[in-house]
Design brief:
Radius of gyration of chain A: 33 Å
Shape of chain A: elongated
Oligomer: homodimer
Helix content of chain A: 40-55%
Distance between the termini of chain A: 32 Å
Largest interface: A-B, 47 and 47 residues
């Protein structure tokens, strides 16, 4: 096709200066964030050194053309340079009054990792003389030149920085000085020659003496840096998609290092840590921006500027006001003071902590800068996490031993314990313990629940430990592979260092740090602003937020966090208690219905009591109870010791137990005998569970506790399955009502999980027998993608690395694939039953990006783990707003 | 709603007799098969005893009304009885010339298991006297009465048959006789009284003396029998759906037991075993139909009738001619001769063997009775199996030890061997062996291939052994649970009997029989008629039939069976050979790319040679090669001995091997690191395989063998996966072409399997990078339904038993669920790429019912195991015809 080599030929360069500013902040896509904001600041009268921006589409054209600069670009650049010379009254490469420029990249999204900055561009053997004349400071001028050669060689030409450093060391040695700043003009001249040799040696060419050659190469280097692996990875990790390329900002130089009346600084218009409306930042006298970054000298807080240059400080406070009034957002600025004159070099939206985000958003509504809706969209929902969990004091010292995966946020300290039973026993003793395991299994549940935190040496962020911990909001560090755990000797070895039972360890679930010793913690605080924001969110959102909870304690926490019911009450964890697991195992190993019924009879009172507790905690709110789901072998002991114990208890031979455990083994348990398949083959399990639910309901109601159970049948794939089990459930409900002689109204909805692709595809048939659908997006993802969550560790990293997947589909729902099934199921289900209640109870219920999808397909509710309830409330509000905005465009 | 109790009130009874016949054979749904055919025979002038049929809708109404006969039914029955009395000139319950009737059930489909027959109805204490008078035979009359009480008590009232038998024994004892027929009139009278007592004792009421009461109860019993478990199960097992109920046939009695000039018989209009056009059947003199069935006396072949009653024999030959001319189909008839007069009691389409079905269908076309299309639809495609495999001589004696599941048809005999290696060694020695295992694994492949047959004690018809065996057309009996296999001592114990290494055993893959000793076998024969039928099928079908084959030998067989290419050439089995498995294991256990490449280099020549062999066998036909699919741990040894051997060969520590094997273990291997996921993480595997394919192709082409490979990438779920691997494949192809300096055209299509739900849902994206789709319906079924094929044994029987599933979805494709995904994928794929070639290579490719579905969604080809190719060819033709018929209705 003749179009193939077609490139955009529209305007490539946008100038900003005192007389003419061609860009504005709305042009972020075309000019990049930095360029758009430089233009914007210029046009609202802030003191910005003049310059111009080359568009992001030019970068795209450069890449498309196979790394070739568009034909007319140099001409355009020259035209704009002439404009700049005119405005600054300096000449590029001049021997008298040379114009120097900086070259900086700048994409539409903030992207560290790309080529950053070249300063002092335009200096040559000739113009360095001009600069000395112009500034009256030869040393400064030489220093600027050597910096350019170093920076240009390093950043533009890829010469290893160390090459320049060792040249510097030689010169310093020769001149017998130790500090860079002690080198005199002769020394600097010698250094410049040494740098030029380094440059020549490693690039094969001389350092360019044509300033336009310098400029051209610098621009090209910025373009190239768009696609270096570091930048590509950054974009993937941060979900930055659909950008065309980077812009290039060429700006006349100002110098913060021209003496004691010069300086440079960075600042935030409000405190990015707390959100307080205070000017916040730091500055260095007689320094350039890179000195601040390099951390050679320690900067002063901006408040100190009041003393040093009160009028500049006042000017900065005015700038802060102007910027906030204009941008209606907290800004992160860079500035330079050249010989007592202030210049603005950058403004952008400032990053902030979750707490600050909430405070700033709410404050700005109060200040009438923004609307409530805007405020809601300003707070990244996930950042609320920081407000809801305890965390280590950021100022406390950490003796970090190793780093694992930050599997479940929070902070915990305690003695290491190696078995679930010990975790329970010592916690009951009042000790704080960390459960340390190679990996966890359902047998460890009670210990995991008891422990202050969980630490594993294998498994990823979707391992059993991680998933369970997140559900409880319990701190967990997983897959800390450097730990060598010896549970028999009760030691952890890490890089030869042994940690014993008397050593306290701390784990940071937000960073993955494993720390020796205790670390001071900060409790979560529900600020006034947080409560205000939540009220606004609740007003806007149109999805109900429920929680996934199996215990009265978790239910109470979730309720405090604003849960409007339980969307998923798993019943399996209830069987792991000490008195219960034996009866459960008897039930499983029974070889006939009457033995099974006898064992179930023992379990019934426990179940009933559990439900009474949960109903009481959720008084007046609906509680969706899922019937038994996991394969039965998950309840059986796998270790010989436990198997022998079971044999004794059941009065059968040990061999028999082993045989039955083997018999129940499955090749792919995920796709095996579990979910409603269990109750199809063993209807008496369903009868027991439903009996417990109904008896608990009636007992509560008689105590004036408004129990509102809903019964959920898991893993339905065929409408006939649900039809049969619904009938059995209804019969059982009737039986209990009769037995208990209950006269009240007891209208218990019966629904199903949609977690098997076939159920979604045939949702119209399934809906005939369901009062509600709850999407189990974990299993639905496993089956739709064919990924076992337990086994993705072997290929998922490659899939993300190689950009085959943009994100882990167990964290953010795969809207393209899995989402289609959700959409089909909702549509078909509501065709059959227009008012069918639809919700979601997979882990995606706590993921803001997924929540936007769920809102778009009109789910009625979301259920997530207790600690994510506030996040879901905010995310649901944001989803409503975003989907409204989207609807306006379509 | 007032309509709820609405019942059909249209005509309930259809009369058939010499003057009036209200039904015809087109009314099978309403009258049942038997009733419709009785009417039809009557109307074409055959001698049928007059009677009438109560409709199947009446049965439906009876059930709907909660087992209540429609109000006016008795009135209708009485009206028709009066019509019958008039025609027969006898009176129901009369004391002089009583009318006796038979009552028989008859649904639209043949259904053993339901209530069958009550004879002599209408006899009472009074009419029995009339019958004696009418026939002049008191003994006959009394005998008929006692038979009625027995039959009515047993069949209608559910009295245990043994109760009557022990009463009979007492009477015989009392009269000192041993044979039933020796009992005199007094004895029979006593027996009648004894039977009446039995009846009263077990029903609580007297044997009805009102003949209409008898008739009413008999009719009701027939209706009730429609829904007894036995009948429901039969319908399910035979996929009989959508029927309303059973008809009831009330017919005037004729007696084959009225003396030496009477008799009864059953016959086929052609030989049901061979299909030869010969009258075939047997008869008994002086007997009733039940005597033939009961097997008390041995019947004579119908040819003997020529001597006994030549004119009756001629009359029967005429009937045969008339029926075949009329029905244009081979008939199965029942007849009775009463005092020298022939009566027809039934005609229906006769069951036949596969061979007979083929011969009759082709012969009838030659006889111009039916069209070729009709002939194609007359042969159940699955029945061709019998023609294609060796089978045991049906006349040979069998010493059956136990019965397992008939997992893969055929017949095999040989010495039991217990390891794959021994199977190979002894087969190479010229011995015939049966591989006996608890279960098989991929490590046994070479032994399974070598053995004459495979016998396992666990696993179902979709176990590894079964699936692999069917693929090869190798005889397999699976899950023979009564066998106790001791592979160390090399014995099988069955019910205490020990079978050693010197004992030959035989297994029948069509029945599941495990037999002690050798059994004579019949070779398969491709008859002339078979070839003719196949030619017709090939002309009609519009889907190409390919085969699944991994070896030159299987490819040659498939080609002989008419395969038009290979649709699935698995490459994994190729790695199990003795020289290869070591290199394969080295490759898997390599910890870096260069070691892996070194091991792969060893495998390359083997792969290349394999492909050359297959290309040669398929010269000129396309060969779709699937790249490595199973998880790598399937190739690793699980037994310590083999692990130690591997450690020595690889010069690493044994512990290291154990560690790596454990490391590669997966919780759900089905959803783990396999298929194209392997080549995403280890691209060098793809490179080796594609190199082997292309080198083999070029080598063949240079020898003038027209190799036509197609490369298939398995387990794709995301379009980006395929895009990346396609690119790598294309690059590798280019590299080999260059290296081999090949100048010819080498256009190798690159496609993918659609076996993950997500791939089907996003087929429009996937199609961008695919030249063809091949549906892997095995895995697609596993993921869409969430069933692990290896684990369904624990619940599938219950699902079928409880009617939740109508059939095993791994045998016949679930068109409702999985089929939706196939349909979506074809539609979306062809939206993106209108000429996209679509086929299927799962096991459903050999299932006729599934083939009808595949044809309906317009697949281009089907691939099945070699031995099912003829079945698929016929089924594809039938699918074309059936879907054409269906299209006419819509």
């Amino acid at each position: 096709m003749s179009n193939k080599s077609h490139v955009s030929t529209s305007k490539r360069i946008y100038y900003f200066g005192s007389k003419l500013t061609e860009g504005h902040r709305g042009m972020r896509d075309l000019l990049g964030g930095k360029g758009a904001n430089l233009a914007e600041m210029t046009s609202i009268g802030l003191p910005v050194p003049a310059g111009f921006t080359i568009t992001t589409t030019t970068c795209a054209d450069y890449i498309k053309a196979g790394s070739k600069l568009p034909q007319d670009l140099i001409t355009d650049i020259k035209a704009n340079m002439r404009r700049l010379e005119k405005e600054t009254k300096k000449i590029f490469g001049d021997t008298k009054s040379p114009l120097l420029v900086s070259v900086r990249s700048g994409a539409a999204a903030s992207m560290p990792g790309m080529m950053d900055t070249v300063l002092n561009l335009g200096l040559t053997d000739k113009s360095v003389v001009g600069l000395a004349e112009q500034t009256g400071n030869k040393r400064f001028s030489l220093d600027a030149y050597r910096r350019l050669i170093n920076m240009f060689g390093d950043v533009v030409m890829g010469v290893d920085h160390h090459q320049f450093e060792s040249a510097f060391d030689k010169v310093k040695k020769h001149h017998k000085v130790t500090d860079d700043t002690d080198l005199d003009e002769d020394g600097l001249s010698e250094l410049i020659e040494a740098y030029k040799s380094v440059y020549k040696k490693h690039t094969g060419e001389n350092f360019p003496q044509d300033p336009y050659k310098q400029l051209e190469k610098a621009v090209e280097a910025v373009f190239k840096s768009w696609n270096i692996p570091r930048a590509v990875t950054y974009r993937r990790l941060n979900n930055i998609r659909g950008l065309m390329g980077t812009g290039v900002n060429v700006q006349s130089m100002v110098f913060g290092n021209m003496g004691e009346d010069s300086g440079t600084g960075v600042a935030f218009t409000r405190d990015p840590s707390t959100g307080k409306n205070e000017f916040y930042g730091e500055f260095l006298i007689n320094a350039q921006g890179e000195d601040v970054v390099a951390g050679i000298r320690t900067p002063e807080p901006v408040s100190k500027m009041k003393k040093w240059k009160p009028q500049i400080y006042q000017q900065l406070l005015k700038v802060k006001k102007t910027l906030e009034a204009h941008y209606k957002e907290m800004q992160d600025i860079e500035f330079t003071i050249e010989r007592g004159k202030l210049y603005m070099l950058q403004t952008r939206t400032g990053k902030r902590t979750g707490a600050a985000a909430v405070k700033i958003a709410v404050d700005m509504v109060k200040e009438k800068r923004i609307s409530q809706k805007t405020a809601l969209l300003r707070v990244p929902a996930n950042d609320l996490n920081q407000l809801l969990l305890p965390s280590f004091d950021p100022k406390a010292k950490r003796n970090v031993l190793t780093r694992g995966l930050p599997a479940s946020p929070g902070a915990a300290s305690g003695y290491p314990v190696y078995t679930a039973d010990e975790a329970v026993a010592r916690t009951e003793n009042g000790e704080s313990v960390i459960l340390v395991r190679k990996e966890t299994s359902p047998e460890d549940i009670h210990g995991m629940h008891a422990a202050a935190g969980i630490l594993t040496s294998t498994g990823g962020s979707t391992s059993h430990a991680a998933v369970v911990a997140r559900g409880w909001g319990k701190c967990c560090v997983a897959g800390a592979g450097e730990l060598v755990i010896d549970s028999k000797r009760e030691t952890i070895t890490i890089h030869g260092k042994k940690i014993g039972v008397k050593d306290i360890i701390s784990i940071d679930g937000s960073t993955g740090d494993v720390i020796l010793g205790d670390v001071a913690k900060r409790a979560p605080a529900f600020t006034k602003e947080f409560r205000t924001l939540m009220t606004w969110a609740d007003r806007v959102r149109n999805m109900v937020i429920r929680t996934n909870s199996d215990t009265p304690k978790d239910s109470a926490i979730a309720r405090k966090f604003g849960a409007e019911g339980i969307g998923l009450c798993r019943t399996e964890h209830m069987f792991f208690g000490d008195n219960r697991i034996m009866a459960m195992r008897e039930m499983i190993l029974s070889e006939n219905t009457s033995d099974r019924r006898a064992a179930l009879k023992k379990l019934l009172p426990f179940q009933r009591r559990d439900f009474e507790g949960i109903f009481s905690a959720m008084n007046g709110l609906p509680v969706t109870i899922r019937l038994l789901d996991p394969p039965l072998h998950e309840f059986l002991p796998t270790e010989e010791k436990s198997q022998r114990k079971l044999a004794r208890a059941m009065k059968v031979k040990f061999d028999h137990i082993v045989h039955r455990v083997n018999q129940l083994h499955e090749v792919n348990p995920m796709l095996g005998h579990r979910g409603c398949r269990l109750t199809v083959t063993f209807p008496e399990i369903l009868e027991m569970q439903v009996t417990a639910i109904v008896e608990a309901t009636i007992n509560c109601r008689r105590k004036r506790i408004n129990a509102l159970p809903e019964i959920m049948i898991p893993l339905v794939g065929i409408d006939t399955e649900l039809a049969m089990l619904r009938e059995l459930t209804e019969e059982t409900i009737e039986k209990v009502i009769k037995k208990k002689k209950y006269k009240g109204k007891l209208d218990i909805p019966i629904g199903t999980m949609i977690e098997i692709p076939r159920a979604a595809l045939t949702a119209d048939d399934v809906a005939q027998h369901a009062d509600f659908f709850s999407f189990g997006t974990n299993d639905l993802t496993q089956m739709t993608l064919g990924y076992s969550r337990d086994d993705i560790g072997s290929f998922m990293p490659d899939y993300l690395e190689k950009n085959i997947l943009e994100y882990n589909p167990f964290q953010t729902m795969d809207a393209t694939g899995v989402g289609q099934l959700v959409e089909i199921a909702v549509a078909k289900g509501r065709t059959a039953k227009p008012k069918l209640k639809c919700g979601i109870c997979g882990e995606h219920g706590g993921d803001p990006e997924s929540i936007v999808f769920f809102q778009s397909v009109q789910l009625d509710y979301i259920s997530c783990s207790p600690f994510r309830v506030p996040i879901a409330r905010l995310a649901a509000a944001q989803a409503t707003l975003l989907n409204q905005q989207l609807a306006l465009f379509n």
